[in-house]
Design a protein that fits this description.
This protein has 113 residues and is mostly helical. The chain has 5 helices and no strands.
Length: 113
């Protein structure tokens, strides 16, 4: 994480800024000790990471849809998974949620997810 944090308005495009935001918050989550103790959550986060790499590489709307669907698995019954809550990851998850929301708007995907 040697890169300087830039405002979205300083990025080559808003889209790149929001993708960078998702990556930033995802990196915070993945560096949290104890995540691998819950295989289900860790698998969801691993799948999210794979799809995030595709989004970074291709910047396509399919990856945004897939990331949103995977992200929703972290909120069973509409509530944050208790393990993620106990690890105090709500702020990072909120950051990802906001960036995904903005990406969906940018790709005109509001009705899909």
């Amino acid at each position: 994480m040697d890169e300087a944090i830039k405002k979205v308005s300083e990025m080559p495009s808003n889209r790149k800024g929001y993708i960078s935001g998702v990556k930033y918050y995802f990196d915070i989550i993945m560096r949290t000790p104890g995540l691998s103790q819950n295989r289900g959550i860790y698998r969801v986060l691993t799948d999210f990471g794979v799809e995030l790499e595709d989004l970074i590489k291709y910047e396509d709307s399919t990856s945004v849809i897939n990331l949103s669907m995977i992200f929703n698995k972290l909120y069973p019954d509409g509530e944050i998974h208790e393990m993620l809550d106990s690890l105090k990851l709500q702020t990072a998850l909120d950051g990802i949620s906001e960036c995904l929301y903005r990406l969906k708007k940018d790709y005109h995907l509001e009705r899909w997810v």
